């Protein structure tokens, strides 16, 4: 084996190990939901509505909706409408009055066959969620390596 072949082999091996390490440290939907709920405040009936700047699927019936850089809400939906999006990067939020987001409003993934009513709105501490996710991944990685 020449130097280029050995280098290519080591790069491929390193990549394979990195990918397998990431895969073993993956957090499943149930763990993610428990983590988000642990870092969510008490339910509120409505919040001021802004055009969302981002969203993240927690599981088929929960979404973290980011309104402003330091304002994120955990929404519980009436059904698994997020599972219909086929990985769509878009989320349509339908506010009944355009000024507030409440449990009367709906969420839909464009191209999906249905929309879901918002059942619950809770403020989310995203910094705490990220720290907890990082710790959970590190713990899973240690357990996967057997140390």
Which features characterize this protein?
147 residues; alpha+beta; 6-stranded antiparallel beta sheet; two-stranded antiparallel sheet; 3 helices; 8 strands; globular; disordered N terminus
Structure description:
- There is one protein chain.
- The chain is of the alpha+beta class.
- It has a domain at 40-124.
- Helix content is 35%, strand content 28%.
- Strands 2-3-4-8-7-5 form a 6-stranded antiparallel β-sheet. A two-stranded antiparallel sheet has the order 1-6.
- A hairpin with a 2-residue loop joins strand 2 and strand 3 (62-68).
- Helix 2 (29-38) packs across helix 3 (126-145).
- The longest helix has 22 residues, at 3-24.
- The protein starts with a helix and ends with a helix.
- The model is unreliable at 1-24 (pLDDT under 50).
Describe the global form: globular
Could you say which structural class the secondary elements and strand pairing correspond to? alpha+beta
Largest sheet: 6 strands, antiparallel
End-to-end separation: 33 Å
| Contiguous runs where pLDDT drops below 50 for at least 5 residues | 1-24
The run of helices and strands is HHEEEEEEEEH
Count of alpha/pi helices = 3
Question: What Rg is obtained from the alpha carbons, in whole angstroms?
Answer: 20 Å
What percentage of amino acids are in beta strands? 25-35%
Q: Name the helicity range.
A: 25-40%
Tell me the strand order in the biggest sheet.
Answer: 2-3-4-8-7-5
Mean of the pLDDT scores?
79
Can you count the beta strands?
Answer: 8
């Amino acid at each position: 084996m020449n130097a280029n072949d050995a280098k290519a082999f080591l790069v491929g091996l390193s990549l394979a190990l990195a990918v397998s390490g990431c895969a073993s440290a993956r957090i499943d939907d149930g763990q993610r939901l428990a983590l988000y709920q642990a870092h969510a405040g008490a339910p509120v009936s409505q919040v001021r509505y802004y055009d969302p700047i981002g969203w993240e699927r927690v599981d088929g019936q929960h979404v973290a909706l980011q309104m402003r850089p330091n304002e994120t809400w955990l929404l519980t939906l009436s059904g698994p409408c997020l599972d219909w999006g086929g990985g769509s990067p878009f989320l349509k939020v339908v506010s009944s009055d355009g000024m507030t987001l409440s449990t009367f409003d709906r969420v839909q993934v464009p191209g999906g066959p249905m929309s879901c009513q918002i059942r619950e709105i809770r403020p989310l501490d995203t910094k705490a969620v990220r720290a907890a996710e990082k710790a959970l991944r590190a713990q899973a990685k240690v357990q996967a390596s057997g140390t």
